[in-house]
């Protein structure tokens, strides 16, 4: 699996340049625009000292900078934080509390689900109230409560800390279509002890006043980019990227990722003669305060180049964290699962357990159609989390310092960081150097089959509406087997093979991960597999008044899906 060039490169990995960046960022808060820009120049300076050229792109991003919040009731003021994009309401919003109980996510895979009590979330109970809800201020919950008439939201975080976050479902800087989904109510988060007092108050019919202060608008933001040219196909490239803005100093999220990319840039630049394809490395701003605004801007500004030439997108977030002994719940699109399994086994001598990428983590390229792998990196075991009595968070290797002022140097682990850097480097080079791109679309067809069967079962008597999808999927499966057999036999030349593998991504990734058209950005809300068919799982909830509309939606979704599968099969037959 790993060729000599890859083995030589990973042997050169060390933390001599990476670790000082982690240490420096541990003293540099990076969410206010002026601090974020200073840290971009720090990255550029370090790259320059390593002899690596860097381009400093300027982007105009729409950001929400949170400063302070409070919740007051019965003469007591509770400390709080305002999620980015909540309404700035320094004068205060007062109202009666209504509690919507919720369950905590059992794993990262369900972290962004609503996880709340359906009955308590009924519109008639919410309208005109300030909703108090357990868990995090996730965008799907805030959007639902806002649409049902809530005048404010308070999220009760699971522990003694208050976690920063963002409550907007708008992905990146809003366009005119996304603007109506921007939150228009104040939102605050409190810790669990204070939240329990507020829950008791809600049960007693009490009221509270929320105050929030944020700054929202367009800000100049810097995107450092390193381009390491390939020697054979320099126009084709792998995109490695991660965010350099953070909440407070954000050591595990994401100073360690910034350091990993610095080291990978160093090693690749000095071994660029061994690269077949190019590797482009980018550090994103606007992740924390703009809902992935930096990566969304890049996807927009360089869309046609990405469409023509990017063969894979690799996200680097939260590597090198303490106790992160396993590679579980790691994002990977199914076509790249075999690649990641092999790389992690050979480099780290560990098993790999990937999962469907969430609609999160700077995956701003799904609508273009880029094969992608990694998001969060290694993590602690379930047993370790239980031992530490940790709840599920969205980064930091599972450490609950995630998105808090406690994400400090003790969250990072130098040895684990070196191991994770080697894994990233090997995965990137395995794509960049492969004669035939190492993406197996037969695995995606297997995923599609399992998804379709789930929808067929849920659709019951209406399952026949999915018959066109089943027929086209069967045809695609046959075509894929013939295609890969041709590659193995040498009857499909590498130029055609790579062009087809890349073009399949442009068809099948949007089909599996998006609802909107290409070159747009779907909301930051959970997306099920083959989303155009997902209404099939809801047919049983519709009565006589709406079932016809639901069937119509399913028929249209089946047409979209079947047509895309047919397009993919025809591509293989050319």
UniProtKB/TrEMBL annotation:
Annotated GO CC locations: extracellular region; lysosome
GO biological process, alphabetically ordered: proteolysis
Assembly and binders: Homodimer. The monomeric form is inactive while the homodimer is active.
Name listed for the protein in its UniProt record: Carboxypeptidase Q
Coarse class of the protein's main subcellular location: endoplasmic reticulum
Pfam families: Peptidase_M28 (PF04389)
Lineage top rank: taxon: Bacteria
Domain Peptidase M28: 229-415
Alphabetical list of SUPFAM superfamilies matching this protein: Zn-dependent exopeptidases (SSF53187)
Gene Ontology molecular function: carboxypeptidase activity; metal ion binding; metallodipeptidase activity
Location within or outside the cell: Endoplasmic reticulum; Golgi apparatus; Lysosome; Secreted
UniProt keyword list: Carboxypeptidase, Endoplasmic reticulum, Glycoprotein, Golgi apparatus, Hydrolase, Lysosome, Metal-binding, Metalloprotease, Protease, Secreted, Signal, Zinc, Zymogen
